[in-house]
Structures are given as structure tokens and as C-alpha cells.
Specification:
Blueprint: H1 4-11, H2 17-27, E1 55-59, H3 64-74, E2 79-83, H4 88-95, E3 103-106, H5 114-121, E4 126-129, H6 142-160, E5 165-169, H7 181-196, E6 201-205, E7 208-209, H8 216-225, E8 229-232, E9 238-239, E10 242-243, H9 244-256, E11 264-267, E12 273-274, H10 275-286, E13 293-296, H11 298-314, H12 327-332, H13 363-366, H14 387-392
Parallel strand pairs: 1-2, 1-4, 2-3, 4-5, 5-6, 6-11, 7-10, 8-13
Antiparallel strand pairs: 9-12
């Protein structure tokens, strides 16, 4: 295996010298070997300080899903390489997910740089792609991120001959004929991966729920901090939200079982809900006294959001132009996003997924409820509280 002394000059072509010096020792320990053989090199009880036998490159590691995937893999004593392009402070929490030197951060990630991609996977036997965008920007289109990059990555992985498992994180509802360009390009990217890596595994989770998610948090922002919360076509479309820990667990189960190769898994939670039901549940959990949702017809939504789409691709990103205020999101809201009948899912991975309307999955919502977390179900006993106090805490 190429030592760190010879690897560093090549790595310096795409990474900062200072950060490379910090990562040199960690990189020198990465040794690829078969996932189902050479058990002699595995050692320890199975925790973070063990030798798990996996060296995984996780693209999109600092994203919502990617960070949980890194945690699940590294805490089992495996090594993880994390390419990133953001500020280094944002990826520092990833280092704490594994033992000393087990999580390697590679800066200056560029989806257009083939040489970078080759170096990032050069010592890995597992590659996981979690890269994706929810709205197009001045610099990146759906095609750039969902089609061109996965295609380029799949070609490089196939040429390397070293990667034994490839997992693509797609999305439920992805279809080449979908009216939403985001979901359409997701499906095209999945097909490109299967073309070059027939034994790749595709996972398509529903709307993923967790403390840092883009689903509940954006809905809460609409309900709590905007004048109105537009609900397209009265929220009649059905979705299957799923809890983030179940998605990360599914990735680990897939890596452990080689029979999952070449298959697509739809990771939908146990509840099939309409968007209207989700809005109502959040309003109830947040203890909001007013329902600020308004029905917005699909045709009107597209007309209103179209100018915002143009602004996103011409100007720097604005924090108030969330992805839910886009014509592409409007297209998503007129179609159901549920697992197809007879498709593979959590059950085939021996996982019992959690509901997203109770327990830990909804805990993050409870912490920002009106009156604070500790008020809990005070509405049930509010009749014994003076009116001026009920009004102050927004109790009904």
C-alpha cells in the first residue's frame, strides 16, 4: 500500500497543505480489504475503538443524512473519509463520531474534479453518495448534482476495481417521468449508477425527520414565523416520512448483507399521512393558538414561485427563499410520495421503523412549542389557570 510519505504529494493537488498535514497520519492507516473475508484483521468487541473492516468514503458527509451515516459507520470501529467543501468548523463534529484518526476530513471537494474523486476513494472499499440539493442555485443545477456527479462517480468507482459496495441515497418519489425536475433528475442519476455499477444499492427514503431536518423545520418556520403557511392543494398528497436513525441503521444493515447488492429499497415510515395531517399535527404539538395555513392552488403556486426560481439561479442564495417556495416543490406536492406496492423496504432489512408523530422523532418539535417544553400538555389543565396567564402562554 502506498505510504503517507508518497501519498501526500498527490493529495496536495486538491487539499490545503495545513489540513493535509493534520490528516496524514490518519490517511496512512486506511487499508482496504474484503468486507466478507480476512477476519483476522478485525479486532475488538465491536465498538468505536475496534477494527471493523470497512473504509468508507461518504460524499455529502456533512449533510443531514450523511452525518448520521458517518456516525453509524464510524462508531462500529470503521474508518470514514469525508470530502467536504464548506468551512472546516462545520465538519469538526464528524471527527468526534469515530475513534482518534478514524474519521478523515478532506477539504476542497468539487463535484467536477475527477482527480479529487479518485483520490477520495483510492483507499476505500465502500462508497456512499449522499450528495443532493433541494433547490437550484447560481452555481449548481439539479442536473449537475443529481445526474452528472453520480454518473462521474459511478464511472470512477467502476474503473477503480477496489470498491466492493456502493450505496446511493436517492429519494422516495424519484421517477424519470415525474413533473418535478428534482425528483426526475434523482431517478436519472440512479439509472446511471446502476448502468456502471450493477451491484450498487439504491435507497429511497421518504421525507426524513430529525432534529436538523429540512422537513419539519421548514414547516415549523412557516407556521411560527411567517404571516401565512401556504398548503398546496389543501395538502391532499400522501407522504411516508421516516426517522433519520432508521435510515442510518438501514445503511449499516445493507453493508452487512451482500444480498442487498443490486437492489432498491424504499424506506418509508409506518405511517402514511397527508400533508394536511402533518400540518395539523405540528400545530397541535407546537400548541399554536391560530392556524395560519391557507390553501394555495397548484396553478397559482407555480405562477407565484416561478419568479423566485429565476432569482435563485441569478443571484446569491437568500435565506428567506426556502425550497418550499419553488415551482418544483409545487410539482412535488401534487403527487403522492409513498413506497410502491411490493417494493423492498425496512421489513426486508429486519428494521421496525419509528413513527414520526410520537417519541424521539417528534422530540425536536416539542422543544420549540409555545410556552416551552415543560408546559407539555398544560392545555388539558388550563381551565384551572387564570385567564391572564393562559393568554400570556398562548394556552387555549
Amino acid at each position: 500500500m502506498q505510504s503517507a510519505r508518497y501519498a501526500l504529494p498527490a493529495l496536495q493537488k486538491f487539499a490545503g497543505a495545513r489540513l493535509l498535514a493534520q490528516n496524514a497520519r490518519a490517511m496512512s492507516t486506511l487499508k482496504p480489504f474484503d468486507l466478507n473475508a480476512n477476519n483476522a484483521v478485525r479486532n475488538g468487541p465491536g465498538g468505536r475503538s475496534s477494527i471493523g473492516g470497512v473504509v468508507a468514503t461518504v460524499f455529502g458527509a456533512n449533510g443531514f443524512i450523511g452525518s448520521y451515516v458517518v456516525n453509524e459507520i464510524s462508531k462500529r470501529g470503521n474508518q470514514v473519509v469525508c470530502p467536504y467543501r464548506c468551512n472546516e468548523n462545520k465538519v469538526q463534529p464528524l471527527k468526534q463520531m469515530g475513534d482518534l484518526g478514524q474519521v478523515v476530513l478532506l477539504p476542497e471537494f468539487d463535484i467536477h474534479d475527477d482527480e479529487y474523486i479518485r483520490r477520495a476513494i483510492s483507499r476505500s472499499n465502500v462508497v456512499i453518495n449522499c450528495v443532493g440539493i433541494r433547490q437550484e442555485t447560481k452555481n449548481y443545477s439539479y442536473k449537475d448534482v443529481h445526474v452528472d456527479f453520480p454518473t462521474r462517480l459511478a464511472k470512477i468507482v467502476a474503473e477503480s476495481g477496489k470498491v466492493e459496495r456502493f450505496i446511493q441515497v436517492s429519494e422516495m418519489g424519484a421517477d424519470v417521468s415525474h413533473a418535478s425536475r428534482r425528483l426526475q433528475t434523482k431517478a436519472v442519476g440512479d439509472e446511471a449508477i446502476m448502468k456502471y455499477i450493477p451491484d450498487a444499492t439504491i435507497i429511497r427514503p421518504g421525507n426524513v425527520v430529525g432534529i436538523e431536518d429540512y422537513f419539519y423545520n421548514n414547516l415549523i418556520f412557516q407556521l411560527s414565523y411567517t404571516i401565512v403557511a401556504p398548503v398546496i392543494n389543501n395538502g391532499a398528497n400522501k407522504v411516508q416520512p421516516t426517522y433519520i436513525l432508521d435510515v442510518a441503521d438501514a445503511v449499516v444493515k445493507i453493508l452487512k448483507d451482500k444480498k442487498t447488492s443490486g437492489k432498491t429499497y424504499y424506506l418509508g415510515g409506518p405511517e402514511t399521512l397527508t400533508m394536511r395531517q402533518i400540518y395539523d399535527h405540528l400545530i397541535d404539538t407546537l400548541r399554536l393558538s391560530n392556524d395560519d395555513t391557507v390553501n394555495l392552488r397548484y396553478e397559482l403556486a407555480k405562477m407565484l414561485y416561478k419568479p423566485l426560481d429565476t432569482l435563485r439561479t441569478k443571484l446569491p442564495e437568500f435565506p428567506f427563499l426556502g425550497f418550499m417556495m419553488s415551482s418544483d416543490y409545487a410539482e412535488e406536492q401534487v403527487a403522492d410520495s409513498v413506497a410502491p406496492a411490493g417494493s423492498l423496504g425496512y421489513k426486508d432489512l429486519s428494521i421496525s421503523p419509528a413513527k414520526v408523530t410520537e417519541g424521539l422523532a417528534i422530540e425536536g418539535v416539542r422543544f420549540i412549542r409555545v410556552g416551552g417544553y415543560d408546559w407539555g400538555d398544560m392545555n388539558k389543565v388550563s381551565s384551572n389557570i387564570p385567564e391572564h396567564i393562559r393568554k400570556y402562554y398562548n394556552l387555549k
